[in-house]
Amino acid sequence: MGVYGQDWASYQSATPDTTGLSFAFIKVSQGLTYTNPEWTAQRDHARAAGLVVGYYHYPEMANSWQQEADRFLSLAQPQAGELVCLDWEGYDTANEGVSHADQLGYKQNWLRYVKGRLPHNPVGLYCNTDYWNNVDTTGYVQDFLWIATSGRPAGQPGISANWLFHQYSDSGDMDQDYCNLGSTDALRSWALGFAPPAQPAPPTGPAWPGEDLSLRQPLLHDANVRTWQQRIHDRGWPITVDGWYGPQSKSVCEQFQQDSSAHGWPLTVDGIVGQQTWNATWQRPVS
């Protein structure tokens, strides 16, 4: 059992009824000049309804695929867990003069390029069975196939290829779609699976004690020195954890400051554990 959705363009209102829906694909652009005037309102409406959102571009394949892709990407800017798709069909006057070989080349290049620009979002292909069976020769869809077979039951597109979405009806004033995943959460989890893993927040560590740790006479000896030495030792620096800020501590501090600056965390190299060096000891990623 799958879930249901719709695809929206300017023919639909800015706020279609989302009852019973899990996802919506929204037309953003066509060719090099057209933008769906409703797309941002439709996007906000779909997000507010908790739908998984996808965006698609309709090509005019006599144009540069890269220019069209760049324009689409400048508009869509999907969030993590949102999908993008090429609506690959060419029955209109803008495409009917483009050879099938060039249409295929457009599809291949557009998908690869957009995936390179959006490595952490699902990128897929929409087409009908005519294009799938008679124009495509590669089976390349990038991350997912959205197949259109008007008049066939939902979830039964009648093709052997792996598909994720099925547009099973384009009658009336709304295209109806089906996803073969079992729930909205399953679809959302699949889409989010392309995002990079969340990076753990850097440890904040204890607050700076309010005094510089430095080489002095008599030598500084206290719990703050020991705390800093323990942390720097845990980071892999060879240092004796004894609470005394002697020549060894100053030398290690200078080395840590130099290394931090070399790794994009600039510190003054002075051998003094001031507030910036203290905080970096805990917050800078271990290199």
Topology of helices and strands:
Layout: E1 3-8, E2 23-30, E3 34-35, H1 39-48, E4 52-58, H2 65-76, E5 83-87, H3 100-117, E6 123-128, H4 129-135, E7 144-148, E8 165-169, E9 175-179, H5 184-192, E10 220-221, H6 223-234, E11 244-245, H7 247-262, H8 275-283
Helix pairs in contact: 2-3
InterPro entries: GH, Glyco_hydro_25, Glyco_hydro_fam25_subgr, Peptidoglycan-bd-like, PGBD-like_sf, PGBDSf
GO molecular function, one term: lysozyme activity
Organism: Kitasatospora viridis
Task: Profile the largest sheet.
Answer: 8 strands, mixed, barrel
Total strands:
11
Arithmetic mean of pLDDT? 95
Strand content: 15-25%
Quick rundown:
Pfam families: Glyco_hydro_25, PG_binding_1. The chain is of the alpha/beta class and 287 residues long.
Would you mind describing this structure in some detail?
- The structure is a single chain.
- The protein is an alpha/beta fold.
- It folds into 2 domains: 3-192, TIM Barrel; 220-283, Orthogonal Bundle (Muramoyl-pentapeptide Carboxypeptidase, domain 1), CATH 1.10.101.
- Helix content is 32%, strand content 18%.
- The chain contains 8 helices and 11 strands.
- The chain has an 8-stranded mixed β-barrel with strand order 1-2-4-5-6-7-8-9, surrounded by 5 helices. Strands 10-11 form a two-stranded antiparallel sheet.
- Helix 2 (65-76) crosses helix 3.
Please name the defining characteristics of this protein:
287 residues, TIM Barrel, two-stranded antiparallel ribbon, 2 domains, Muramoyl-pentapeptide Carboxypeptidase, domain 1, 8-stranded mixed beta barrel, 11 strands, alpha/beta, elongated, 8 helices
